[in-house]
Amino acid sequence: MLSIKNLHVSIAGKEILKGLSLEVREGEVHAIMGPNGTGKSTLASVIVGREDFHVDSGEIMYKGRDLMGLSVEERALEGIFLGFQYPVEIPGVSMTSFLRTAVNEHRKYRGLDPLTGAEFLALMEERKELIEIHSDLTNRSVNEGFSGGEKKRNEIFQMAMLQPALAILDETDSGLDIDALKVVANGVNRLRTPGNATVVITHYQRLLEYIIPDFVHVLYDGRIIKSGGKELALELEEKGYEWLKLQES
Amino acid sequence: MSPEKTEQVLGRKLISLFDSHRNHISRYDPPFLQGIRNQAMESFRKAGFPTTAMETWRNTNLERVLEKDYNIIFDPPEAPVDLENVFRCEVPDFNTHIISLYNGWYISRDTPLLTLPNGTIIGSLAQALREIPELAEKHFNKYAGAMGNGLISLNTAFAQDGVFIYVPDGVEAYKTIQMVNILNRDDDVMVQNRNLVILGRNSRLRLVHCDDSHNQQPSFTNTVTEVFLDEGATIDHYKLQNLNNSSTLVNSSFFYLEKESRLSTHLITLNGGLIRNESFVRLSGPEAHADVFGIYLMDKNQHVDNQVFMDHSAPVTTSNQLFKGILDDQASGVFNGHILVRKDAQRISAYQSNRNILLTDKAVVHAKPFLEIYADDVKCSHGATVGRLDENALFYIRSRGIGEYNARLLLMYAFAAEVIRRISITPLRNRIDDLVKKRLRGELAICDQCVLHCSQEEKRYSFDIDMSKI
Ligand SMILES: Nc1ncnc2c1ncn2[C@@H]1O[C@H](COP(=O)(O)OP(=O)(O)OP(=O)(O)O)[C@@H](O)[C@H]1O
Ligand SMILES: [Mg+2]
User: Fold this and answer.
1) What's residue B463's pLDDT?
2) What range defines the domain where residue B161 resides?
3) DSSP β-ladder status, B262-271 and B234-242
4) Which of A82, B64, B368, B406 lies 20 to 30 Å from B343 when distance is taken between CA atoms?
5) Contact between B207 and B235 (Cβ < 8 Å)
6) CATH of A2-248 given 3.30.2350.10, 3.40.50.300, 3.60.110.10, 3.40.50.1860
7) Which residues lie below 8 Å from residue B443, measured CB to CB, with a gap of 6+?
């Protein structure tokens, strides 16, 4: 589904991704771990099409298509979703109208009629039920004044509304209490199908007890320096990243 | 000798027109008015038109406007104007009493001065000056006269008609009064109407005031409105401006607030060539409160200027100003908010905020707060920002599948909505909400200009807000 080959990315003349490769197939869950500032969010941003990053070389293929020619919104409509590490507050735009617009844009793209207000509300209820989110954030402005945990849950809720083919969750577990962590993990698991894929970026092995990854990758200094199964996360937790660095050199 | 400045040419023309038409202009004046007119003309002779040498006019240049050789209309329209042809009301659930000024002259469906069973008087200022001069005399030019601005003096000298509203003590005008200013001429005209609104004790009025042009003809409107709020009175006032790109409007409003009265005024500027709003608010009794809100959406070479003079002259008075603007292309904007807290006016709170979004490098805004405080128990805050659309928010919205154009509209609309939300008359809020969306989409036509003016061709806009269309 997603195939990244030898990707080099820079911002403001500074190289951040230095030859990164990654293969994600349908039905898989991948976890990406790695120290602060090594390029995890950069990778996520480049996949969804953020324009301030410059792709110097390498390629990103998604469902057999080169992603480079597609705009941010086109990638979203093609099924790529990013759960932001820092969700953006948008005062004055209500969650409901924001999501309704997004859902209807996705429907339009697939040649479907837009949902009416009532249909949309029903869909929201259904998806809240599915991922067991009970707090009502939908009548507020997008992320405005949301607590850290609420923002993260709201990302999962948006994912549930849009049901992407490829979801990239950038530290969606950070700052969550144990109950919220379960809600987020539960959401991911409930939304999982044989046809979609999830990439979770995390610092904590703990999340991976709830979302069982097929692969764990270590992103270090702009490259994936080690990949393995879920046991790699445990090993990292125990030994730290220094161990890998030593091993590498 | 240096060549004569264009504004001096127009100024001299106006002075000589005044001299030659003095008797005609004042033919129905009650005695108290004669002296006022002559004095005002004297002031104009001395002051002339405002120039950029004046502090509050530094960023609004009238030179181009004053180059034109405007005609003055000294008489009311001869043939009766068919109001039904001029506008039709199609806003659902908006029960209003409509009055209108046609090229500056009051035109009425029934009588030029209507007295409702509850004592409310609505009609032509010219008629009110004739029929009830005592009431008019108490307030006419009492608030505007104190300000030594040449344009205000000029208005006082020339004004022959306008709207007069009186709401007696304790009366709540149940219908919203809607005033429509219609300009419909084939020549360049200067219109100087004058409005007087008097609210008795504990009375209440909702007034919507629309400035409307019906063609692309250049025009210069110099309008002055005086509003007096007696103790405990409340006014909810809206000024909706959507004029053509060759029009100039200088709109000076004076609000005089007695004890415990409340003012809420909204300046909604959707289109116009050069628009300047001057709002003078005097809080002269304890517990008086004023809200002055504004939204402006300008593009091309349009210019908008909002001036607020908030005068806290009594203790325990409060005020709140919020102005927001979006400027595209080469449009320019000015905001000057002057808060004055006089000596011994203690326990004051006065807030002011001006926020702007510039969509291009060529659009500009000059924002200047000016606080002048002579008391010490004062809570005061002010802030002015000029920025771009939030790139992070744009990216976030687009990452959910909403195209860039719509994402920008969504952000612009959200920015404007903070002001629109404060419109307390629901059908009016919906209508303005609609107009703002159309404006942001670039679909607003001149025929949309007034709140209630829906021309035959106009399709009814859905009131169910579907963001996917904005
Ligand atoms: N807009 C930018 N301008 C300059 N440098 C940037 C910019 N964005 C990111 N960087 C730099 O790129 C590097 C990688 O950042 P990135 O956010 O991808 O790290 P990360 O792996 O997600 O870290 P964390 O675990 O702390 O979230 C950092 O050194 C960061 O400072
Ligand atoms: Mg990160």
Assistant:
1) 26
2) 6-285
3) parallel
4) B368
5) yes
6) 3.40.50.300
7) none
Phi then psi dihedrals of residue B376, to 5 deg:
-110, -20
- CB-ligand 1 contact for A218 (6 Å cutoff): no
What does the block give as tokens for B113?
């001065």
Would you say the CB of residue A164 lies under 6 angstroms from ligand 1? no
Q: Are B370 and B336 in contact (CB under 8 A)?
A: yes
Among A33-42, A177-186, A228-237, top mean pLDDT goes to A33-42
The enclosing H or E element of B16 equals: helix B6-25
Report CB contact under 8 Å: B401, A100. Answer: no
Q: Please, which pLDDT band fits residue B163 given cuts at 50, 70 and 90?
A: very high
Order the strands of the A65-66 sheet from edge to edge. Answer: A14-24, A2-11, A54-62, A65-66
Task: Identify the band that residue B466 occupies on the pLDDT scale cut at 50, 70 and 90.
Answer: very low
3-state secondary structure (DSSP) of residue B207: strand
- Are residues B117 and B15 in contact, defined by beta-carbon separation less than 8 angstroms? no
Work out the widest C-alpha separation in chain A, in whole angstroms.
Answer: 60
Q: Which candidate from B399, B411, B418 shows the least CB-CB separation from A76?
A: B399
Q: Which two tokens stand for residue B69?
A: 């050789």
Which positions ≥6 away from B93 have C-beta within 8 Å? B426, B427
Query: Within A112-224, where are the H helices?
Result: 117-131, 148-162, 178-191, 207-210
Tokens encoding B447: 């025929």
Q: Which residues contact A175 (CB under 8 A, 6 or more apart)?
A: A148, A149, A152
Overall domain count for chain B: 2
Q: Quick one: pLDDT at residue A249?
A: 64
How far is Cα B280 from Cα B465, in angstroms, rounded to an integer?
Answer: 35
- Read off the pLDDT of residues B245-301 as tens digits, 9 standing for 90 and up: 999 999 999 999 999 999 999 999 998 999 999 999 999 999 999 999 999 999 999
Nearest 5°: the CA angle B467, B470, A80 is 65
Is the separation of the CB atoms in B60 and B305 below 8 Å?
A: yes
Provide, as residue numbers in chain B, all residues whose Cβ is less than 8 Å from the Cβ of A109: 401
Give the DSSP letter of residue B447.
G
**pLDDT per position as a tens digit, B17-64:** 999 999 999 998 999 998 999 999 999 999 999 999 999 999 999 999
- Number of Cβ pairs < 8 A linking chain A and chain B: 85
Residue B467 with chain A: CB contacts under 8 Å: 97-98, 100-101
A41 touches ligand 1 (CB under 6 Å): yes
Domain ranges of chain A: 2-248
